[in-house]
Design brief:
- By secondary structure, this protein is an alpha/beta fold.
- Helices cover 52% and strands 8% of the residues.
- It has 15 helices and 5 strands.
- Strands 2-1-3-4-5 form a 5-stranded parallel sheet, sandwiched between helices.
- The longest helix is centred in the last third of the chain and has 20 residues.
- The chain is elongated, with a radius of gyration of 23 Å.
Length: 312
């Protein structure tokens, strides 16, 4: 049972957070026109990329450390509650179709489990122990990277995930939207995107959520670039799981090689539909099995595999 003193202590904590601050200038926003509210909200949102820009060196350092672990077989694991947890699950779920990663390589953990994606699970975010249990359940190792996500930077579930991961020797990243956060302090790499008070007091699904989405986009995308999942700005590891992606696969091979439709179809059929392998057969002048061997030898980096086909 939570006591009055506990609530007073929590309220005092929230009073110190910029993400929870009250904006007197917006106290009568409900009396404004819809267009005026939309303009105000859009103006608030426009400040978020600049706040992210302030932390690019910390973001880059975290990405390089993550890529180094993943190159050795580690996984990228997001952990958060509420909106923060949902954003982590979203980013993780988009990696297999975009980068052909195995679903076990990038994971999203949300306080309260999968059902919390659509229904709030009361009290789940308040437990460090739940985070440790969730990480134990997926067999966390010291090769893995755990990203704790929390707008306030004080959510016990996110902090618990970081503390448990760090104790096991995993790489830890703490992403929050308040300066001097406990989450950033607990992690190897602290990233604090200070976006200021929200349009609706304490509604951190707004600017804070946008900031988290932007940083998670960078973490996963640039890590995958570092791991050789792209060729230039082409998604050469895309998984063609539907008609749109099958068409995109052919377009990617065309953009990378300038080959004819017939050459592209031949290359894709020779390589079981693998875009990266198809490009290598065309640009490197090798057959399907040779392309597969070259890519394996270069750890999936298409540029390195192409270099290996050139006479030295």
């Amino acid at each position: 049972m939570t006591s009055t003193a506990d609530y007073a202590n929590l309220r005092a904590q929230l009073d110190t957070l910029t993400t929870e601050a009250f904006r007197p200038d917006l106290a009568e926003i409900d009396r404004r026109s819809t267009l005026d509210i939309a303009r105000t909200m859009n103006g608030e949102d426009a400040t978020v990329p600049a706040a992210v820009a302030q932390r690019l060196p910390e973001i880059a350092a975290a990405i390089d450390a993550t890529a180094a672990r993943m190159a050795r077989g580690g996984r990228l694991i997001y952990a958060g509650a509420g909106t923060a947890g949902r954003l982590g699950v979203l980013d993780a779920s988009e990696c297999p179709p975009t980068f052909n990663t195995d679903p076990s390589e990038v994971l999203g953990l949300i306080a309260g489990g999968p059902s919390a994606m659509v229904t709030a699970v009361e009290g789940a975010e308040d437990s460090k122990e739940f985070a440790a249990q969730d990480l134990t359940a997926i067999g966390l190792t010291d090769l893995d990277t755990v990203v704790g996500i929390s707008a306030s930077g004080r959510t016990p579930y996110a902090i618990g995930a970081i503390e448990h991961a760090r104790a096991l020797g995993a790489l830890t990243i703490g992403l929050s939207c308040n300066a001097g956060s406990a989450l950033a302090a607990a992690a190897d790499h602290g990233i604090e995107i200070v976006v200021g008070p929200e349009l609706l007091t304490g509604s951190t699904r707004l600017k804070a959520g946008t900031a988290q989405k932007l940083v998670l986009n960078m973490l996963s995308t640039i890590t995958m670039i570092r791991l050789g999942k792209t060729y230039g700005n082409l998604m050469v590891d895309v998984r063609a799981s539907n008609e749109k992606l099958r068409a995109r696969s052919r377009r990617i091979v065309a953009l990378a090689t300038g080959a004819t439709d017939l050459e592209i179809e031949t290359a894709l059929s020779m390589t079981g539909g693998e875009v990266k392998n198809a490009i290598l057969t065309i640009l490197g002048g090798v057959d399907g099995p040779a392309a597969a061997r070259l890519l394996e030898a270069s750890n999936g980096h298409l540029r390195a595999a192409l270099e290996a086909t050139k006479p030295h």
